[in-house]
Amino acid sequence: MSTATTAGARAHARAQGGTVVECMPTLPAGDGLTWAETIPGGGYASKRLARGSTLQLTDVYGDACVSVLLFNADEPWERLNVADTVKVLWQAYVGAGHLLLSDQGRVLASVTAGAADRSDTFCGTSTLLSNTERYGDGSPQGPTPAGRELFTVAAAKHGLTRRDLPPSISFFQGLRVGDDGGFTWLGSAGPGATVELLAEMPVTVLLANVPHPLDPRPAYTCSAVRLKAWTGTPTAPTDDLWSRSPEGERAFLNTADYLTARGLA
Q1: For 64-120, how does the pLDDT look when each residue is reduced to its tens digit (9 = 90+)?
Q2: How many CB atoms lie within 10 A of CB 201?
Q3: Cβ distance 27 to 166 under 8 Å?
Q4: Which of 166, 172, 70, 67 is nearest to 116 (CA)?
Q5: How far apart are CA 226 and CA 194, in angstroms?
Q6: Which single residue of 122, 124, 193, 257 has CA 20 to 30 Å from 68?
Q7: N- to C-terminal Cα distance for the chain?
Q8: SS3 of 181, please?
């Protein structure tokens, strides 16, 4: 079908209406969902989520590796701090019950489901240089996009730039740190593995689904991840997670103080 004329271009565009594109969001989400989307390998997504929202990530085929960044949706200079998330809570392997802390000592989100042995707080995501050296291309529009480049594109949709991007946390591909400080890649959590994040304040979430930097396979290997989000309630002082550790409780109190002052709690 020729697209050289306006009529031809219109006919061609309308002919795509029945095409299923894996990376397209499902709109409206329906069934009580606020977000439903599938990100293919080499894809990205972003969304602003209300306080109390649950974001569920599912590794559909067993080869996803989703890197996650979180920002305070109202004041995006407050963002995920991986170092404090690890240091303050005395745990580098992020699984159910872990808190994702900002650089202000507040809880951006809590992990309510997910296996700690298939997460990574050390390596971040891939870069233009690393992917170009390994696969021949790392540009966001290329066949083997780097996570950092996809984050840059996603960030731009929310008025953020490359300099606003901190280190990320990734899920579904794990590693372990040995006594010598070296990394051992553990591979996939398997098809159907799920991670759930509960937004403890209004957040902007950026996601990049690309191969883990330590994945030893020579080919660019990364499969689809399914996203679902729905509204709910944030962690309350009566919930066990609130007071599970003194450091976590302090972070929740910091969050409550901030939200109350802004009329959000």
Answers
A1: 999 999 999 999 999 999 999 999 989 899 989 999 999 999 999 999 998 878 899
A2: 26
A3: no
A4: 172
A5: 9
A6: 257
A7: 56
A8: coil
What is the rounded distance in angstroms from the CA atom of residue 255 to the CA atom of residue 45? 26
**Residue ranges per structural domain of the chain:** 35-233
One-letter amino acid of 128: L
Interatomic CA distance for residues 102 and 109, integer angstroms: 9
40-50: per-residue pLDDT in tens? Answer: 999 999 999 99
Q: What percentage of the chain carries pLDDT values higher than 70?
A: 91
Over 63-112, what HEC string results? CCCEEEEEEECCCCCCEECHHHHHHCCCCCCCCCCCEEEECCCCEEEEEE
Written as six digits, the tokens of 84 are 């404090």
Check: CB of residue 35 under 8 Å from CB of residue 228: yes
Q: Are 169 and 80 in contact (CB under 8 A)?
A: yes
Backbone angles phi, psi at 125, to 5 degrees: -115, 175
